[in-house]
Amino acid sequence: MRVLIVLAVLLCGLPVLASERCNLQVPTLKVELGEVRLAYQSIGRASDPALLMVMGLGGQLIHWPDEVVARLCEQGFRVIRFDNRDAGLSTWVQTPPSANLVYQALRYRVGLSVSAPYRLRDMAGDALGLMDALGVRRFHVLGASMGGMIAQHLADLAPARVQSLTLIMTSSGAQGLPAPSPALLALLSKREAPSREVALEQQADLLAALGSPLVNDDRRALLQQAEIAYERAFNPEGVERQLLAILAEPSRVELLNRLRVPTLVVHGTADPLLPAMHGVHVAAHIQGSELKLIPGLAHRFQEAFKEPLLAAVLPYLRAHRQDGHWAQL
């Protein structure tokens, strides 16, 4: 009976202990990596398996939903999220005079090479440098959109260090895959704004266009999301430089063909920016990978799809913890 009482007390206390360990109000720290300074947060205990989360185009670490980060941490992971270079509180790179987005986009459309201040592989090197600075030898990687492209390079740069790879709403960059609509591309490239109010409206328009047709967005909520991001950091030129890095990237099919890292590919059937075939193509070229298609998911983390996303990702990450036990709470 005494054993049962002790066990009951321990079990009832687990949620409290997990919430204390997974405190999302940790400070944002910075690490110097040569010419680049990265802003990051580390949530969870240093002794837990590390999960590095890599955000997409123009995204900041705050764009990872707190509820998702908390759930990942509560599964026993040390969650590390950061601002890519040219986003958020990380280094904003100076643009050379030759880096003209309109001109380079035209070159891309006619099949010519694109000039960019840096490449996606450089951004993967940033992420690897962050893990070096934190003293993390092996880790799991979860990347979304452009972050998934960076994650592909990261797994190629350090295959012995990446325990598992989770790629969400991303692409191989191969020619011939379905393209987004011109209207969506126009919204994506519309970054200049004469005022704060216009900038917020533009961002809300983009968020709405990237959302699922199955969800009716609350315009006020979209504007609030845009405002939070704007107040933390507003860097439209940085988004252009990141976009140039994507355009300058050749197809990653050869890279994917040589990957031998356990990989889960998650994609939505209603993605307007990178239609579902992009995810299917990625999975087809990574040996042994798993593919999860989520009906109705578009190109945004929307409340209606948090549980389906977690249902796809959590079992996979649990299966690849490789430490043989659950979190020691």
Automatic annotation (TrEMBL):
GO terms for MF: hydrolase activity
Coiled coil ranges: none
Residues covered by the AB hydrolase-1 domain: 49-299
Keywords of this entry: Hydrolase
Family matches, as Pfam families: Abhydrolase_1
Signal peptide location: none
Keyword Transit peptide part of the UniProt annotation: no
Keyword Membrane: no
InterPro entries: AB_hydrolase (IPR050471), AB_hydrolase_1 (IPR000073), AB_hydrolase_fold (IPR029058)
Higher taxonomy: Bacteria, Pseudomonadati, Pseudomonadota, Gammaproteobacteria, Pseudomonadales
Protein name: Alpha/beta hydrolase
Protein source organism: Pseudomonas aestuarii
PANTHER family, per the entry: AB HYDROLASE-1 DOMAIN-CONTAINING PROTEIN (PTHR43433:SF5), HYDROLASE, ALPHA/BETA FOLD FAMILY PROTEIN (PTHR43433)
